[in-house]
Amino acid sequence: MALDTEEEQVEKIQNIWKSYKYLIITIIVILFGIYFAYGYYSDQKIQKSEQASQLYQEILIKRIEDIDLIKDKVDLLKKSYKDTPYASRSSIFLSKLYSQNSNNEEAIKQLIWATQNAVEESIESMAYYHLANLYLVNNKLDQAMESAKRINTIGFQTLAKDIIGDIHLKQNNKEEAKKFYLESLKSYKGQGDLRKILQNKIDSIGK
Fold first, then answer.
1. 3-state helix/strand/coil string of 180-192
2. Which of 44, 114, 133, 164 is a Cys-bridge partner for 127, taking CB atoms 3.0 to 4.6 Å apart?
3. Would you say the pTM of this structure is higher than 0.70?
4. For residue range 115-126, what is the model confidence (pLDDT) as tens digits?
């Protein structure tokens, strides 16, 4: 079969255009719309993240005595910037302030919110770790264990196993406590104070 001449090829293109020009134009318009919408969404997301970051920095530099002002800013982050990491981070920060003021009930509420709304797994694990600690301090051992077991991030496994050991020890289950302390020590790669603390816990249980 002979190849089409240049004139025949042009004629075919013209015929295709006549038959499908509205469809082609519609597809082009849709593609451009998607392109510009994505660009707008990306710009808005960046701008929103920057605003949330600025608000979070304002929270961190506030005096800890200004807990009501801090709470207002945290509430704003949770309401308007829930889909940024700064909302759950600020909630964890506020929980620490409540805990320091012996307001453990409010501290727990803030941590529960952080676990349910964290957009990063590491922040979620951090919230569960602090929540497990608070439950442990308040002798709510079942809730402490449940929270500790929800810590999934690899970087938090040393702390997770440590606090699970603490929970078992408080339940007077020394064998399980020692088991988790040993696992925690094995997973810890550093040579800092945590290694000494874990070793002391193991030694205090004995054989």
1. HHHHHHHHCCCCC
2. 114
3. yes
4. 999 999 999 999
